[in-house]
Every structure is written in C-alpha cells, then in structure tokens.
C-alpha cells in the first residue's frame, strides 16, 4: 500500500515536501515513482528512484525537485522548491519491480496559486 | 523526447462490443510499452506491460499488441466497468512519456 501526504495550497515560489509511506514491501527494493496529473490533463512522470539509487527527473522538475528515500521509515519523498502555477496537479506515488509502475497511491493534490 | 499519440481521442462503444485503441510512438520503442486505465477521481491502473503482457488480475478481455512504433489495446467485449480513459506509456527512453489518453464512453 502507498499513502501520499503533504499536498496543499502554496504560493508561487514556495516549497512543499510530499511523502509516500509504503507498507507491505521495501521501498529500497523497488522502483519508486512520482507521477502527476494537472486538472483535466494527462499523466507526466516527474521523477523515479530505482533500487540501484539511480534518479531520473523530467525536464520540468530538474533543478527544482528532489526525490529521496528513508529506508528506516520505508518512505519516499518529493521535495518541491520554486513551485510554479503549472506545477498544480495531483501527485501520485507509484512503485514497481521495474518500469512500469504496477501499484499506485491515491494521490495528493498540490495547488500553486497566489 | 519520444512523443506518444493516441487515437481516437474519444471512442463511443456499446456494451458487449469490441473496442480498439491505438498508440503511436514518434520513434521506435521496441516492446517497452504499457497501457493504463483511469477512472474519474482514481489513480491509473496498470493493464498491460511489455506491449502484450497482462498485469496481475487484469481480465483476459484486455489484450495488447504491437512493437516498434505502432501499438493496439483491444477490449474484446466491453463491460460497464471498462468505460474509462486509457493511456499508453513508453518505457524505452527517459522521460517515460504518456499518450494524451483515449476516453472510452458509452454509445
């Protein structure tokens, strides 16, 4: 099971840290994903942290977002800095043994607005 | 980045009928292609990976085919619970891009 938290309303330029608490498996043994969906739009793979600690970012997230993992808490994070209006979306945490992600959380909404 | 284009944008189908959804990649992705189903307010659900392998628990009426740049998701006999938006995703080259989605609606 994956449970996201940390979303909310933030002003442009602000920061948020999303959390994804996992149960029933070890996050360090999985590919962990953050995928977002803007209102009424499609899906975008924002970041991936694989079990070899290789990290990937979409161009839209590079230099602003940081994915990380706390093995002691079995939790994955997405630190989002310099938020922009176009970062407004539901952010899903997902996992898989590799790509693609086969298990998804319920999502947490992020609204960037003044 | 690889651009994924799905067609049609909307497919109107009667229950019990067959639905055929298409996905085209702007360059070859071999068989690194997945399909997802998404219902309103819910997370996507993985249906198919490596172009033609059904994920665990996915009914046999869902099948995927294709390789290279052209892919198809077929739903052999639509059930009421199948009306949703379907997305393809290539996993050949980062960023792992999605198509824009095909909405399957009741005719």
List unreliable stretches of 5+ residues of chain A: none
Structural class determined from secondary elements of chain A: mainly beta
Largest sheet of chain A: 7 strands, mixed
The radius of gyration of chain A is: 13 Å
How many helical elements of chain A? 0
- The gross shape of chain B turns out to be globular
Biggest sheet character of chain B: 6 strands, mixed
Order of helices and strands of chain A: EEEEEEEEEEE
Strand line-up in the sheet with most strands of chain B: 2-10-9-4-5-6
Beta fraction of the residues of chain B? over 45%
What is the number of E strands of chain A?
A: 11
Report the count of strand segments of chain B. 10
Q: What value does the Rg of chain B take, in angstroms? A: 13 Å
Oligomeric state of the chains?
Answer: heterodimer
Fraction of residues in helix of chain A: under 10%
The largest chain-to-chain contact, stated as pair and per-chain residue counts, equals: A-B, 19 and 22 residues
Strand content of chain A: over 45%
The percent of residues in helical segments of chain B reads under 10%
Terminal CA distance of chain B reads 35 Å
Summed over residues and divided by their number, the pLDDT of chain A gives a mean of 97
Note down, in words, how this protein is organized.
The complex is a heterodimer of chains A (114) and B (107). Chain A has 114 residues and is mainly β. Chain A has strands spanning 2-5, 8-10, 16-22, 31-37, 43-49, 55-57, 65-70, 75-80, 89-96, 103-104, 108-112. Helix content of chain A is 0%, strand content 51%. Chain A is globular and about 40 Å long. Chain B is mainly β. Chain B has no helices and 10 strands. In chain B, the strands form 2 sheets. In chain B, strands 2-10-9-4-5-6 form a 6-stranded mixed beta sheet, with no helix packed on it. A 4-stranded antiparallel beta sheet of chain B has the order 1-3-8-7, with no helix packed on it. The mean pLDDT of chain B is 97.
């Amino acid at each position: 099971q994956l449970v996201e938290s940390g979303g909310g309303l933030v002003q442009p330029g602000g920061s948020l840290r999303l959390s994804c608490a996992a149960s029933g498996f070890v996050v360090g043994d999985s590919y962990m994903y953050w995928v977002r969906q803007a209102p009424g739009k499609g899906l975008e793979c924002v970041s991936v942290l694989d079990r070899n600690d290789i990290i990937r970012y979409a161009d839209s997230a590079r230099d602003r977002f940081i994915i990380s993992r706390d093995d002691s808490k079995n939790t994955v994070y997405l630190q989002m800095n310099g938020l922009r209006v176009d970062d407004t979306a539901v952010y899903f945490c997902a996992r898989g043994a590799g790509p693609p992600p086969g298990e998804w959380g319920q999502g947490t909404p992020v609204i960037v607005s003044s | 980045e690889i651009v994924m284009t799905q067609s049609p944008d909307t497919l109107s189908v009667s229950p019990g009928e067959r639905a055929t959804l298409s996905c085209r990649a702007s360059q070859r992705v071999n068989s690194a292609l997945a399909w997802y189903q998404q219902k309103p307010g819910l997370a996507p659900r993985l249906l198919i990976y490596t172009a033609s392998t059904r994920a665990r628990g996915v009914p046999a009426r869902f099948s995927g085919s294709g390789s290279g740049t052209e892919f198809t998701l077929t739903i052999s006999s639509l059930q009421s619970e199948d009306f949703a938006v379907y997305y393809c995703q290539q996993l050949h080259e980062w960023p792992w891009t999605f198509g824009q989605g095909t909405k399957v609606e009741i005719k």
